Amino acid sequence: MSAVVAEQASTPGTPGTTDSTSGTPRLREGAFGNATSLACRECGHEVALGPHYACPECFGPLEIAYDFPAVTREEIEAGPANIWRYKALLPVPTDIETSPNMEPGFTRLLKADNLGRTLGIDNLWVKDDSTNPTNSFKDRVVACALSAAREFGSKVFACPSTGNLANAVAAAGARAGIKTVVFIPSNLEQPKQVNSAVYTDSLVAVNGNYDDVNKLASEIAGEEDGWAFVNVNVRPYYAEGSKTLGYEIAEQLGWRLPDQVVIPVASGSQLTKVHKAFQELIKLGLVEEKPYKVYGAQATGCSPVSVAYKDGVDAIRPVKPDTIAKSLAIGNPADGIYVLDICRETGGAIEDISDDEVREAIVLLARTEGIFTETAGGTTVGVLKKLVETGQLDTSLETVVINTGHGLKTLDAVSGSVGPVATIDPSYAAFVATGLA
Amino acid sequence: MSVSVRIPTILRTYTGGESEVTASGATLADVIDDLESNHAGIKARVLDDNGRLRRFVNVYVGNEDVRFLDDLATPTPDGTQVSVIPAVAGGC
Ligand SMILES: Cc1ncc(COP(=O)(O)O)c(C=O)c1O
Ligand SMILES: [Zn+2]
Predict the structure, then answer these.
(1) A349 contact partners, CB below 8 Å, separation of at least 6
(2) If DSSP codes are grouped into helix, strand and coil, which group holds residue A220?
(3) N or C: fewer beta carbons within 10 Å in chain A?
(4) What residues contact residue A175 under an 8 Å CB cut-off, 6+ apart?
């Protein structure tokens, strides 16, 4: 049916075939680059590379472990202007560019002087990931998940999603010639539904919230052979894609780390991976070691991590989301505890804002920097503003705020509050009457 | 009271490969004890050393996460579906 299957047949080692006795997929040499195994983030238990995501000892999340060779700035700079320039640091083969993918990444890092002046921050940047192929940072993670799905010989590429991930999976699957099935909460923003359905005939809307959809996907992943759920059974590979946001910020600043970075939090995966990226760059000697602070942003209507931060506790109490920031609406975020650790350890914080503040921040970013962000970015910029107002953020330090998605996907959030200032007849007199002359 | 329990892949070594088993008990805690008596070892995977649900396992009674109910004391009426599902750490 697909290019994926066709490629397998011609590849020595026949990836994707299963050893009938152990049930472990036989993998192509170098299929995962410098990755060596999967290691439990909680207890350290190691598992061989495969489509596994939960520790068999403690259910903790499995993460990719690597044996990195020496990597130089020059080697990275000589690579393509997309995430594959960092392929040595990702669980992907060295020939990753040869198989069809969406080539996301290397998005612009914009100096945001107008927004900085408005908020009173001396040195502010926006990492604008809304310019990825399907207009969110999800294209990065999906590209890595697609590579893993290929190497496992998966026949279906799937995900539960709050919208952006579904868009990215559907598009990447179409380009790769692999069947996609994507699951979303049925109350999702219409543009996000259309943005998936245009790429796939298998968009499934589920009556429930994201946590319900996520549960369903986990159950399906446990029953259906050959399905690669990007954020379930191939999650360890997928999540590594978010590291490229951190690598790019450092490279685009001239191979140095910012002092502060503000990141939206739903599952919390992206925030933990940007931190991991900074740590790896230090370890590999690609940037100088320095302290930096990581801040997390949530919408008050779904802020279990922010609440735990403010309460000073380590356990996250799940919530039922109620916010316009639907892409951040995960009520039971499994990476939340790591977000707490990172924000506390680095001296950052986690803050949340109301839906009205999200709307205001969308307009603020648009009118100061010409960037139209979706509700997740509105949340992040609004939280940045609140962090300044509450004195939690040092305005003299170099700060990067990450915009993860495009405003055209959540038009409804602001369509009621912006519009024509006047509706006039096509006459000069009518124009003058508006007072705009 | 008999309930049906969905078993995640990583625990099926304890159930002889079965994805669904029956168990009995008036509460989730009783159900887990009953599971242990038929599938030794499973309890230590689901509960931590303090006898609480492990941080990265989600247990549902019907369609509701027991953390929204009474946790291990959640009642499990006859015919209930109990599901044990690893928390999916990351991505949406
Ligand atoms: C635009 C946008 N920003 C941020 C996030 C949150 O990402 P994470 O799951 O890494 O916390 C999402 C998740 O869907 C998203 O769509
Ligand atoms: Zn473990």
Answers:
(1) A295, A296, A309, A343, A387, A392, A393
(2) helix
(3) C
(4) A100, A101, A102
Residues A82, A105 contacting (CB under 8 angstroms): yes
CB atoms within 10 A of CB A434: 11
- Identify from A59, A62, A229 which residue to disrupt to test chain B contact, counting B C-beta atoms within 10 A and taking the largest count: A59
Structure tokens at A151: 């190497």
pLDDT tens string A281-324: 999 999 999 999 999 999 999 999 999 999 999 999 999 999 99
Beta-bridge partner residues of A351: A297
In order of A74, A231, A306, A318, A329, the CA distances from A302 in angstroms are 43, 20, 9, 9, 6
- C-alpha B56 – ligand 2 centre gap (Å): 9
* Distance, CA of A380 to CA of A377 (rounded, Å): 5
ipTM of the complex: 0.93
Q: Closest Cα partner for A330 from B58, B28, B81? A: B58
Model confidence, pTM: 0.94
Radius of gyration, alpha carbons of chain A: 22
If DSSP codes are grouped into helix, strand and coil, which group holds residue A34?
coil
Six-digit token string for B44: 């230590």
Q: Which residues of B touch A315 (CB under 8 A)?
A: 55
- A64, exposed or middle or buried, with CB in 10 Å at 0-12, 13-18, 19+? buried
